[in-house]
Amino acid sequence: MDTHSLPSKLLDTAVGELASLPGIGRKTALRLALHLLKQPAEQVNYFGNAIIAMRNEVKQCRVCCNISDSDTCEICANPNRESSTICVVENVQDVMSIEATLQYNGLYHVLGGVISPMDGISPGDLNIASLLERVAAGDAKEAIIAISTTMEGETTAYYLYKKLSAYPIKISALARGVEFGNELEHTDEITLGRSIKNRTPFENLFGHKG
Ligand SMILES: [Zn+2]
User: Fold this and answer.
1) C-alpha 68 – ligand 1 centre gap (Å)
2) Architecture in CATH for domain 82-174
3) CA–CA separation, 99 and 189 (whole Å)
4) Could you read off the pLDDT of 148-188 as tens digits, one per residue?
5) How far is the CA of 125 from the centre of ligand 1 (A)?
6) Which of 29, 33, 62, 189 has the most CB atoms less than 10 A away?
7) Would you identify the CATH topology of the domain 9-57?
8) Is 44 helix (H, G, I), strand (E, B) or coil?
9) Which residues pair with 171 in a beta bridge?
């Protein structure tokens, strides 16, 4: 089907926006747009408003940089979480993955990516300074570096290890096993749960000391 000869400019614009989403081609975008066109107007308003509200109102937790509806996320605000442990992850999906294991009761720190000179991402672009401030100021006794084992992930993990070594805390990494080479979000819950339970001192994994 030629999606470039649409009978409506409005439809064409909507299709263009839908097609800008990851994994959505123009054909799928057209199918979705036509589906929305068939829905009751209030349903589509609700749909549109949900996306607008999410974009405009979701905040970043001022402590851990997780996404949150309030200034402090539910995890940081929960007095039953062990505030002595901070699990450092790449993105908010990783927080969700680790939470889904039900094996971790500490806090998090979301870096917002990994160091990647090729993509122009340097340590200053990530939430690393706020992590170090937290460790310097807070009651953290352990930092768990839970970053994917891609090349950029390893670089970032070692960078963090060096920085965190300046503080009197335990630095751990996820146990390596089945998840090696996978990104955290693709790791199944049982494996991820085990690797966080069986975490090891960081220096044991990499065979060098800071
Ligand atoms: Zn938080």
Assistant:
1) 8
2) 3-Layer(aba) Sandwich (3.40)
3) 9
4) 888 999 999 999 999 999 999 999 998 775 444 456 666 68
5) 19
6) 33
7) Helicase, Ruva Protein; domain 3 (1.10.8)
8) helix
9) 143
Structural domain spans, the chain = 9-57, 82-174
**In 3D, which of 52, 14, 8, 17 has the Cα closest to residue 33?**
14
Distance 118 CA to ligand 1 centre (A): 30
Query: Contact, 106 vs 169, CB < 8 A?
Result: no
68-127 per-position pLDDT tens digit: 999 999 999 999 999 999 999 999 999 999 999 999 999 999 999 999 999 999 999 999
3-class secondary structure, 49: helix
129 CA from centroid of ligand 1 (Å): 15
Q: Decide: pTM greater than 0.85.
A: no
How many CB atoms sit inside 10 A of residue 112's CB? 16
Centre of ligand 1 to C-alpha 84, Å, is 14
